[in-house]
Design goal:
The chain is α+β, with helices and mostly antiparallel strands and 50 residues long. The protein is built from one helix and two strands, in the order E-E-H. The protein has a domain of 34 residues. The structure holds zinc ion (ZN).
């Protein structure tokens, strides 16, 4: 069977970066800014060089 994985609960958010609506698999705490997939991955990209 393929029911071994629970569906992720998606939460609708408004991206703090670009203002687009998006869904995130975590619950926004309302304090920290939330980003859409695109902005999130942009933010996650390390800019530091070692
Ligand atoms: Zn965005």
């Amino acid at each position: 069977m393929s029911y071994d994985r629970e569906p992720r609960e998606m939460h609708k958010i408004t991206c703090s970066e670009c203002g687009q609506e998006a869904e995130v698999p975590f619950k926004p705490d309302g304090e920290r800014p939330v980003y859409c997939q695109e902005c999130f991955s942009k933010k996650r990209k390390p800019r530091r060089r070692f």
